[in-house]
Amino acid sequence: MTVYIDPPTWPGHARMWSHLVSDVSYAELHAFAARIGCPPRAFERDHYDVPASRYRSAVELGAVEVGSKEIVRRLIAAGLRRRKPAPDAT
After folding, report:
1. What share of the chain is helix, strand, coil (3-state, %, to 5)?
2. Which residue from 68, 63, 21 is spatially nearest to 45, judged by alpha carbons?
3. SS3 call for 84
4. Cα R_g (the chain), whole angstroms
5. Taken in order 63, 45, 83, 48, is the CA torsion positive or negative?
């Protein structure tokens, strides 16, 4: 079982953010996110948005540091990727 995190390079709400994913299950991901103090509302489709302030603790607890493209590749390979719905073409 492995959880992955990309560097905090995504801006939003006056912070920088990382993405936290699992290549095994959402249950593993939710349990790990709870261990680092991420609230359930930080879950978005297939990943958690993790503020830069929690990045180091995620790595210390076992999250593997990878790049953003590797995050997506691992989600797809595990069958856990959930893409945003396409906007209505109306």
Report:
1. 35, 25, 40
2. 21
3. coil
4. 13
5. negative
Sign of CA dihedral 19, 24, 26, 27: negative
Side chain identity at residue 63, one-letter code: A
Task: Using the predicted structure, report yes or no on whether residue 11 has a pLDDT greater than 80.
Answer: yes
Count the residues in the chain.
90
- Cα(22)–Cα(16) distance, integer angstroms: 21
**pTM score, whole prediction:** 0.87
Question: pLDDT for 24-79, tens place per residue?
Answer: 999 999 999 999 999 999 999 999 999 999 999 999 999 999 999 999 999 999 88
* Residue 26 identity: Y
